[in-house]
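Cast an eye over this sequence plus tokens and walk me through the fold:

***
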Amino acid sequence: MTSRWSSNVFKGRIGEAIVEAVLSEFGYTVQHCGYEMSFSTHNPLAPDLIVTNPKSGGSQYVEVKYRSARPTSVQLDADRIAKYATRFPHTILAISSAWDASIFCAQVEDLPIAKGNGVATLSLLEEYWSPIWHYFPFVKRGERLRQTWKELQRAISTFGTRQLLGRPDRKLWEGEYEALIRYLDGMA
């Protein structure tokens, strides 16, 4: 049985990969940092990604959350989001949804979260959320973005559940577990 921690890390990496793939497709440079990278030289309290604008060279922190089901709300650690607002101003919170191929974004200072509030539930239907291209204007709606999402969905399906569920014993093959651990621990 997979522990809750490793399950959450795995889901987080999927969300990061989706956001990274979309931003990279449109010319942004994406670096990993934050909690999962705490064994490297990165700040373990930093948001997940640093995104660099291809024209200006300016950088933007991005914290990513992933939802595979149809999201209408998201639960967040209010204290962590408040720390981002204080320590990493203008961090973008990106909620990636495999359900409808969307990435909802908001600046952490715009979220109605009070420090010390525990878990905050935010509706994704509120006006403080915007599509990814609002904060990253080189991302354009249209066929290129749709194709990027189709490729991502195909990859998640092919190399995710289908590979395990299609096996008679539904277990990882020899070497796959270790490779998965190296991937989850590495990504430096």
